[in-house]
From TrEMBL, chain A:
<keyword id="KW-0677">Repeat</keyword>
<keyword id="KW-0460">Magnesium</keyword>
<comment type="similarity">
    <text>Belongs to the protein prenyltransferase subunit alpha family.</text>
</comment>
<dbReference type="Pfam" id="PF01239">
    <property type="entry name" value="PPTA"/>
</dbReference>
<protein>
    <recommendedName>
        <fullName>Protein farnesyltransferase/geranylgeranyltransferase type-1 subunit alpha</fullName>
        <ecNumber>2.5.1.58</ecNumber>
        <ecNumber>2.5.1.59</ecNumber>
    </recommendedName>
</protein>
<dbReference type="InterPro" id="IPR002088">
    <property type="entry name" value="Prenyl_trans_a"/>
</dbReference>
<dbReference type="GO" id="GO:0004660">
    <property type="term" value="F:protein farnesyltransferase activity"/>
</dbReference>
<keyword id="KW-0637">Prenyltransferase</keyword>
<dbReference type="GO" id="GO:0004662">
    <property type="term" value="F:CAAX-protein geranylgeranyltransferase activity"/>
</dbReference>
TrEMBL record, chain B:
<protein>
    <recommendedName>
        <fullName>Geranylgeranyl transferase type-1 subunit beta</fullName>
        <ecNumber>2.5.1.59</ecNumber>
    </recommendedName>
</protein>
<dbReference type="InterPro" id="IPR008930">
    <property type="entry name" value="Terpenoid_cyclase/PrenylTrfase"/>
</dbReference>
<keyword id="KW-0808">Transferase</keyword>
<dbReference type="GO" id="GO:0005953">
    <property type="term" value="C:CAAX-protein geranylgeranyltransferase complex"/>
</dbReference>
<dbReference type="InterPro" id="IPR045089">
    <property type="entry name" value="PGGT1B-like"/>
</dbReference>
<keyword id="KW-0479">Metal-binding</keyword>
<keyword id="KW-0637">Prenyltransferase</keyword>
<keyword id="KW-0862">Zinc</keyword>
<dbReference type="GO" id="GO:0046872">
    <property type="term" value="F:metal ion binding"/>
</dbReference>
Length: 334, 404
């Protein structure tokens, strides 16, 4: 829960609304918190006054330049007040205001409140009203790169929305590649990569290209869940290979080589467990027991050595396979 | 006081949960919040929720004096918005009073109505607080509220928070499901569209995103799974899919839990991920000791409360969710938590009792299925036990809670 430190925005030369000549016609309207309120906030004098005037203006239905300025003050004090944001939009519509000015204002506000839902929503509505998303890639790039949080959920969500709505896919893959290059563990960037690739369509060449991309990244950092999830995700979602790990021999070979070279990353091990489990269930062949044995052995290794925190889970995975095999052999004997 | 296990002197034991300090910490928030929390003005009812439900999980609701209990209930009901027939369907609870003017002037009051809307998250937390305090919800017009929920459903199945000016995403899908489940009435809510939206938000790594192709996230995965369970649609996902979701969740454990791959651990995910795994009957596959150890590393031993990270400032959100996370591991002194509604099992039992009463009333009412009328009938008849739930058992055979 963050603090609202309004002074840094409002400066020290604050003139109360009650002392402003241009507001003399407005009688402030206090908040009715009921006779015995709970979770009362000890509002600052400034907060109380600004919202008293805000209520008075809303009650009056006044949609003017000074009302717009008042919402600016109110939203600096509490950027989470969604009703004031809505009233601000009502004013902008009424005044037929220059929405590019609003975008500039918002870029500043988002810079200060990059994890606030309401500011991003307001941005989205204004962009829709303008029907122009030409600033959105730069805005979100700033939030993700210059502001230092490359995993900011709001910024990615807004970026995806703008790309999807205004068909801005063209240079997204290179942007994503740059972010993955800067931090290979940036799961948000991997997710964005999936979003773009899915839009381009899973043709065989693209799928192979993406599998190679992920394998190359894993070669650099083997213990990276994001890259492994991407690798497996592409295999499972693409129509080529029926979503089966086993139908991608290059990946199978890659994983088995890593294992033979002594790597015991839990994500590699999980991949092998899934692979051998898949082979066990798919195969009608005679080495079924042998394949299942491999699953049990790796699960044991995980539980006892490489992924002890998930020991109960890996035992569960092994037992789950045993159950499935028992069921299918019962069926076969019937 | 029996819950003072934190005072026991036993150095071989693991670090104790400072139950009474947490209770006092939460109690403070019910009174007065400092000016620096003014940016939480719009979500005051969520703070009531964390404090009241937290005290409940601590078995310490007795620390809330009867008058204050009544004040809380009255304040919550004071945020109820009941639209007239000619108004937008904006029924539900407001989480604050920012749009309620102190005036006798009926014209002013009338004008402000245009900007008074129920908000799904505030409606959910308000009803949960009422249930937790043993209220019988008889002052609610259930149809009006569920009409408000249906009115904010988007064609693609998602929900906004309120009738105007809100984004729509998985958080409000969850809130919609909790409200309808708690009121035992789904009205015009389109469960099928809701399911489609949730299913579309399942990502390639088998976590759920906030919307569509966003990144999978622990909080939104909880919202998605709980909404599916509360709407009776969890079994529409294939068994293999559920296993993969379970894998994604299990992989979030580092010591405590993280919300996304390669992100730092945070106390609140002991709830979001823990509750998700409870819903999938997989919580017992986690490492309880490591989870507990992390949560306790974020405990403020001086003023009580939990923070997201060790040495960080505690807050009601992390305090409540930390307590729930501990409750899933069977921590002594804490009562059981109903994962998908995120309230105590005792409160849930009280809610189930209300459902039974409503159902028998509506059966008695012959062909009368008008909820508005039946709630008026309840208002007359059910003035009885506000304290009923305090005596109800804390265990349940409900399929909604997994064995722990």
């Amino acid at each position: 829960m963050g603090d609202s430190s309004d002074d840094e925005y409002l400066g020290t030369e604050w003139i109360p609304y009650s002392e402003r000549a241009e507001w003399a016609d407005i009688a402030p309207l206090a908040q009715d918190d009921g006779p015995n309120p709970v979770v009362s906030i000890a509002y600052s004098q400034k907060f109380r006054e600004v919202f008293d005037f805000m209520r008075a203006i809303i009650a009056k239905g006044e949609k003017s330049q000074r009302a717009l300025d008042l919402t600016t003050d109110a939203l600096r004090l509490n950027p989470a007040n969604y009703t004031v944001w809505q009233y601000r939009r009502d004013i902008l519509r009424e005044l037929k205001a220059d929405l590019n000015v609003e975008l500039d204002y918002l870029s500043e506000v988002i810079g200060q409140n990059s994890k606030n839902y309401q500011v991003w929503h307001h941005r989205r509505v204004i962009v829709e009203m303008l029907d122009d998303a030409s600033n959105e890639l730069e805005l979100t790039e700033n939030a993700l790169i210059n502001d230092g949080d490359a995993k900011n959920y709001h910024a990615w969500q807004h970026r995806q929305w703008a790309i999807r709505t205004f068909n801005l896919y063209d240079s997204e893959l290179s942007f994503v590649d740059r972010l993955i290059g800067e931090d290979q563990r940036n799961n948000s960037a991997w997710n964005q990569r999936f979003f773009v690739i899915k839009h381009l369509g899973f043709n065989p060449n693209l799928v192979d290209q993406e599998l190679i991309y992920a394998m190359n990244r894993i070669r650099i950092i083997k213990n990276n869940e994001s890259a492994w999830n991407y690798l497996v995700g592409v295999i499972r979602q693409s129509p080529y290979g029926n979503g089966l790990l086993n139908n991608h021999p290059a990946v199978v070979e890659f994983a088995e080589e890593l294992y033979q070279a002594g790597n015991r990353s839990p994500y590699l091990m999980a991949f092998l467990i899934d692979l051998y489990q898949e082979q066990t269930m798919q195969n009608e062949c005679s080495d079924r027991e042998q394949k299942a044995r491999k699953v049990y052995d790796i699960c044991d290794d995980m539980a006892s050595k490489h992924d002890v925190i998930r020991r109960k889970y890996w035992q569960y995975v092994a037992n789950h396979l045993k159950d499935q095999l028992n069921k299918s052999s019962e069926k076969a004997n019937q | 006081m029996s819950y003072h296990i934190d005072m026991e002197d036993n150095s071989t034991e693991p670090e104790p949960v400072l139950l009474s300090k947490h209770a006092k910490n939460l109690l403070r928030f019910l009174n007065m919040l400092p000016a620096r929390m003014a940016s939480h003005d719009n979500t005051r009812s969520t703070i009531v929720f964390f404090a009241v439900c937290g005290l409940d999980v601590l078995n310490s609701l007795n620390l809330v004096p009867p008058k204050m209990r009544q004040d809380i209930i009255d304040w919550i009901y004071g945020g109820l918005v009941v639209p007239r027939d000619n108004e937008k369907r904006c029924g539900g609870f407001m989480g604050c009073r920012a749009m309620v003017p102190l005036t006798e002037n009926s014209e002013v009051l009338e004008c402000m109505r245009k900007y008074q809307w129920g908000h799904l998250a505030m409606t959910y937390t308000s009803i949960a607080v009422l249930v937790t305090l043993g209220d019988d919800l008889s002052r609610l017009d259930r149809k009006s509220i569920v009409d408000g929920v249906a009115a904010v459903q988007r064609p693609e199945g998602s929900f906004s928070a309120c009738i105007d000016g809100s984004e729509d995403d998985m958080r409000f899908v969850y809130c919609a499901a909790t409200i309808c489940h708690m009121l035992d009435y789904w009205g015009d809510v389109d469960k099928e569209a809701m399911f489609q939206f949730i299913e579309k938000s399942l990502r390639y790594d088998y976590g759920f995103s906030q919307e569509l192709e966003g990144e999978a996230h622990g909080g939104t995965t909880f919202c998605a799974l709980a909404a599916l369970q509360l709407s009776g649609q969890l079994d529409r996902l294939h068994a293999a899919t559920l296993e993969r979701i379970k894998r994604w969740l299990i992989f979030r454990q580092v010591d405590g839990f993280q919300g996304r791959p390669n992100k730092p651990v945070d106390t609140c995910y002991s709830f979001w991920i823990g509750a998700s795994l409870c819903i999938l009957n997989g919580f017992e596959l986690t490492d309880y000791a490591k989870n507990r150890e992390y949560i306790l590393s974020t405990q403020d031993t001086l003023v009580g409360g939990f923070a997201k990270w060790p040495q960080a400032t505690p807050d009601p959100f992390h305090t409540y969710l930390g307590l729930c996370g501990l409750a899933f591991t069977g921590e002594p002194g804490l009562s059981a938590v109903m994962p998908s509604l995120n309230m105590s099992m005792a409160a849930y039992v009280h809610l189930q009792h209300l459902h039974e009463v409503w159902r028998s009333k509506s059966n008695e009412g012959k062909e009368d299925h008008d909820l508005t009328l039946s709630s008026a009938v309840q208002q007359l008849k059910l003035v009885e036990d506000g304290e009923a739930k305090a005596t109800t058992a804390t265990t349940s055979t409900s399929p909604l809670i997994s064995a722990q």
